[in-house]
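Feature request disguised as a bug: please show the residue count (46) next to YtzI protein in the output. Example input:
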Amino acid sequence: MLLTFIISIIIVFVVLILSVLTISKAYKYKHTIDELPNEKSKGSDM
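Example output, currently without the count:
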């Protein structure tokens, strides 16, 4: 019973650490946005 409890606690901590690392990496990601087309080229596309 004690062994099962210890293994469960270890698994919980591993999942928690991996979740925090993944969230931290996601917040550091630099998103890029395409520039909007100019008004002149917008009318000529149609």
